[in-house]
Write a structure and sequence with these properties.
The chain has an eight-stranded parallel β-sheet with strand order 1-14-13-12-11-10-8-2. It is 42% helix and 13% strand. It has two domains: 2-16 and 37-63 and 133-332 and 344-383, TIM Barrel, CATH 3.20.20.210; 391-755, TIM Barrel (Alpha-Beta Barrel), CATH 3.20.20.210. The protein has 28 helices and 24 strands.
Length: 756
Amino acid sequence: MKTSIVGFPRIGFLRELKFTSESYFKGEKTAKELLSTAKELRKKHWLLQKDSNLDLIPSNDFSFYDGMLDTIVMLNTIPKRYKELRLDSLSEYFAMARGYQGENGDVKALAMKKWFNTNYHYMVPEIDDDTKINLNYNKIVNEFIEAKELDIITKPVVIGAFTFLKLAKFSGEKTAYDFTEDIINAYCDLIKKLNEAGVEWIQIDEPILVTDLSSEDILFFKKLYNEILKSKGNAKILVQSYFGDIRDCYNEVINLNFDGIGLDFVEGKKTFSLIKANKFPEDKVLFAGVINGKNIWRNNYKKTLSLVNELKSYAKNIVLNTSCSLLHVPFTVENEKKLDNSYVKYFSFAAEKLNELEDLKMLLTCKTPFNNNEYVRNIKLFEEVRHGKNDFVKEKVRSLSEDDFIRSPDFYKREKLQKSIFNLPLLPTTTIGSFPQTKEVRANRLAYKKGEISEKQYKDFNKDKISECIKLQEEIGLDVLVHGEFERNDMVEYFGENLEGYLFTEKAWVQSYGTRCVKPPIIWGDISRKKAMTVEYSKYAQSITKKYVKGMLTGPVTILNWSFPREDISLRECALQLALAIRDEVLDLEANGIKIIQIDEAALREKLPLRKSDWHTEYLDWAIPAFRLVHSGVNAETQIHTHMCYSEFSDIIKDIDNMDADAITFEASRSDLTIIDSLNECMFKTEVGPGVYDIHSPRIPSTEEIVNILHKMLNKISKEKLWVNPDCGLKTRGNHETVKSLENLVKAAKIVRDEL
C-alpha cells in the first residue's frame, strides 16, 4: 500500500515565500533572488516529503500566488490588457494578481474568489471570444525535472480542464463549449510533454466534480476526458476530487480511462456508500482521502484503519491520501514552542500529516497493528478527556428561544428613524474598518506581548495612533469614521484571544491569497466572553470626534469559519456559543455610546455546503440566526452594519437580507458590480455599500474612475440606499496609497452628491 498527498503548503517553514515576494514587490529583492528562494523552498519541501517516506510526491503544487493563476499562464489565457503592458513574464504574472500602475499602463487585477468552501482565494480566469488556448508547459515540466535532479520522481499536479472552464468568466458570446477542442489539445500536449520528461503519474484536479452537476455538465466532462485520455501514453492519470463526494457523476468517472481516482472520505459524506453500491473497478487505483487536509487534529487511527480495511472489500488497489491539499493547514507543529504538550499532542499540521500517512501504511501492512506503539499511543490520545467544558454556556445555548433571534421594530421603521437621527449626507462615505498596520504598529504589539513595555505604554501608543487616524479621516472628509484597529493582529485571532475556549499558536500560518497569510486560532472548548474586547478603544475614538465612529466586531460565523473548529460538537452549537459572546460585546458598545456597530461576516459563505440541497439544512438555518442573535437586543436607534468579501453571494442574497442588518458592504470592484443585479432581483431591502475600489491591489483609483463607478451603481441602486466605501479593510495597504485612494473616494462622492 502506497501513500500520497494532494498538495503541500508553498509558503515555507517560516513564511519565506511571503517575505521574499513582498521584498520583491518593494524593489528590495531582484527577480533572480525571488526565483532562487522559490527553488530552495521546493527542494526543502520535496526532501521533507521524501524523508517522510511519502510514495507519491506532488510537484507543480508550488505557486508564487495561486494555482489557478498558474493555469491561466499554462493555457496562455492571459487577457489582452496585461499583454499590452509588455512586461516580462514574472511582472505580467503579478500584474494579473495584484494589478499594475506604472509607466507601461494602469490595469486592475483579475477578479478573486474563494476556492470552494475554504478561506483560500483563487484568481478567476477571463476568457473572451478572441482567446486562443494553447500550451505553455515550462513551469510544470521544469519543476518535474528540478525534482528529478534530486532523485525524486514526482507526481505533477494540474487543475483540470473541466474545473478551469467551469470557474472561468466568459466575457463575450462564446461559452466553455466553444473552447472544447483547444483545451483538449492543450491538455493532450501537456501529457505528451510530461511523458517525454519521464513522469509515472499525473494528477489532474477536478474539484468541481463534488458540486451540483447537470446532465449537460457530465456529458461535457466525459467529452473532454474521452479525448484527453487518448494521449496518456506511459503515464498514469489520476483524477483528483476533494471537498465532498462525486455523487452526480461517480459511475461516469469510474468508467473513463483514468488509472487512479482520488476521492474524499472526510467531507465526502456519500463517498463510501457510492463505492459500496456501485463497486470500484479492479483495474483502477483508489486514492483514498482519509487524512483531513483542512483541520489540524490528529487522525483517529482506529477509525481510519477500520474504514480502509472495509474499503479493501471493494477496491483492489488503494493509495492512502489526504482529503485535499495540505495548503489549508499550517506547515508544522515544530514551530509551536509555547503551547503545552497537553495541547500540542492533539495537533497534526502538514508535516505531521506526512507522518500519519506513514504510520497508517505501516499499521495496515503489519501483522499485529493493535500491539504497535504508535497505534497504542493514538488510541490512548482519543480516550483521554479533554478539558474545556462550560455547563453555563451550554445551558445558555439550550435555553435560546425564537424571540432571541428577532430584532424589533422591523427594518423599514428602523431605517426611517436612523436617517432622522444620524442626518448623514447622500452617499455617506466610510471605510470597512482597519487602517494600515505599519512596522511601528506591529512593533508596539510585539513589545507588549514580550513584556518589554507596560500595558499603559501599549495602550497609550494605540490611542495616539487612533487620534492620528481620526484626524486623518476628518481631514480626508469621510462621513463615518473607524478607530483603525491598531490593537488587532487579525480580525479573528484578536477576538479569540479575548474569549474563553480558544488556543493560539505562534507560527501556524496558512495562506489565504498571494502573500496574505492568516493564523487561525484553535477552538478547544466551550466559548464565552472573558471581558469587554473593543469598548475601551471605540469609546476613546468616539470621544475625540463629533462624527460617528463605528464599533468594529467580527461576527460569530466568520470567527468560526476562520478558526480550526472542534470535531466533538456541531458547528451550529459552536456558532451559537460565539454569537452569545459577541452579543455581550454589542450591547456593551451600545451602552457606552457607540451608535453604529459593524459586525463583519466576511466568511459567511465559506462553509456553505457545495450542494444546494444541503444549504439550509446543514448551514444557513443556523448561520443566519447566529448573526441575528448577535444584534437582536440593540435599540432601534443603533445602526448595525456588516461586511462580506471575495465570495459569490448572488445565490444567497435573500438569506443575506434575512440577516436583518441595517447596512451591508460587499466586495464588488473585482467582480464588475455584478452583485448589484442580484440585489435588485430579490428586492434587497438593506442599505448597501458595494466596494468602489480594490484594496488587495496597490494601485490608486482616480477620482474619475470612482465617479464612473458610482454612476453605474446609481443606475441600479437608490441614492438613499447607497454607501461609498472601499472593498475591504486597509490593514495590508501602505499609508500613501491608502490616503490618496480615500481622498479620491471622498472627492468622487462629493461630485456625484452635488449632481444629485
